[in-house]
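pipeline/complex-builder :: batch 7 item 3
reading input block
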Amino acid sequence: MPNPDRGGGKLPAGLTTRPSDFSASPFAYISRRDLVVPEGLRLLVFSPHPDDESLAAGGLIQRVQDNDGKVCVVFVTNGDGYPEGVKLRIKRAVASSNDFIEYGQGRQEEAVQALCELGLPREDAIFLGFPDSGIDDLWETYWSRGKPYTSPYTRFNRPYVKGKLSRWVKYAGVDLEAEIARVLNDFKPDWVVIPDPRDHHPDHATTGVFVLDALRKLNQEGELSFFCTQVLTYLVHFRDYPQSDSWSKEIDRAGVRGSSSASKVLAGTEWLNLPLTSDELNGKRRALQAHASQSPVLGYFLNLFTGPCELFGHLDSAQIMAVPQEYALCFNRADAR
Ligand SMILES: [Zn+2]
């Protein structure tokens, strides 16, 4: 039976929306519908760096828990490839690999504190420890385990923080995708929240593509169904986002990482508001404050994300299947199909 709340049948079962209260939404120029979070939802959030989870989904993470759901946050990198932040911390012009490693470990602890402010215990965080500022390199150049990527910051070519990782994981595209697939299989999310593949930050865009490719393969292998798993995207780095509407005029023409790949596929993505309560907004502010190392370098930018709504793009199954294939073909990847 058609669901009258699905915008003429465009959204699949499992994702419910309702008309927005326009006066409450700063995104009324792009979205006229609100996301409805059901009871008992399993939410998996992928965060390229510590702080993206709070910036993009701090409100959603709290809402899911308030509705008796379960949340897991996956940090793809430790945020250890940030020279400006490291130099500010050590108060020296030249940073050593150890300085970068310690910076990343500090950001992990900040992430744990931020999740605590959002109501999540440490056990609900997974740190994959892949290289900050190197996720796009894994996809584009260092796909195979035979020639792993070495971080120019930490000098490691594999995750250096012990955690729930396979023993032989290297900084290779196949290994990152295998880790993402393992997390998806273990957690079995109803909703997966990822960086939008059109985000201008290479780590963000490529994290989104990696997760979509893992979902595509799991679907083909029969391990996961798009009828049960919904994919939502978020923007952090895009022209004037979120403070003006100029980004909304560009997003439908934007491809992945400056190429035109997948621009047609992604055009027309359905955007949905999540209006936040004052309690959720306060929790989100506290979570962002917990990322204390970022305030001196990015404080103004972080504050832009403490508006009354969060915004998510919904990808349908055709988009999930096509985006990673089109982007892999840009690099002549043999396993693009
Ligand atoms: Zn980030």
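note: The chain has one domain: 31-313.
queue -> next item
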